[in-house]
Specification:
Blueprint lengths: L9 H15 L16 E3 L4 E3 L2 E3 L3 E3 L2 E3 L2 E3 L2 E4 L4 E8 L1 E4 L2 E14 L4 E13 L4 E8 L20 H12 L1 H21 L1
Parallel strand pairs: 1-4, 2-5, 3-6, 4-7, 5-8, 6-8, 7-9, 8-10, 9-10, 10-11, 11-12
Helix pairs in contact: 2-3
Length: 194
Amino acid sequence: MFGRKKEPEAPVKEVAEKIEAVVEEKPAEPPKPAFVPAPATRIGEGITMVGNFDTKDPVEIRGIVRGNIKSSSSVSIAKNGALIGEAALDSMKVEGRIDGTVLCAQDAVFTSTGSMKGNLSTGTLRTDAGSNFEGKLNMIPKKPAAKPAAPAEAPAANAAPAAAAQVRRDADPVYETLADAIRAKEAAQKATQN
């Protein structure tokens, strides 16, 4: 009773060991913002890229892009970044500047430092106080998510290219909007040539 230390009971000892293990663990990293997944393509600050590119992966622009971008994913333009040209993309976040024409099938977000001079067609637009937009804005209906294709009979050999194009159109909700924009641009170019 006096002077003797009593050993803790087995369940109490197990709980104490578990608490010590939890205390020793490193804290988890804070969650990253949900808007743009980690970019597969990053144009770094101080870099000027001249030319056109087509991608299915997220893009982050910290430098300057002079050219046209076609992306079925998101494009993020950092505070010191700029896009000078045309873009057809799924969604975008602008902290820097854009000079040109953009077709954004889903969401366009302009932060307080973001600016655009040109034409924007988008499904949804969010602008923070301090952002700047000069140009023409066209709100387009968002494309609904693609429905899963029902199994079909095998098409004839000569119908394969048309069937493949139909499958791509059904699988990519941005495809139809982009195709319409390309056809309209080509028609306008032909009209000016005549």
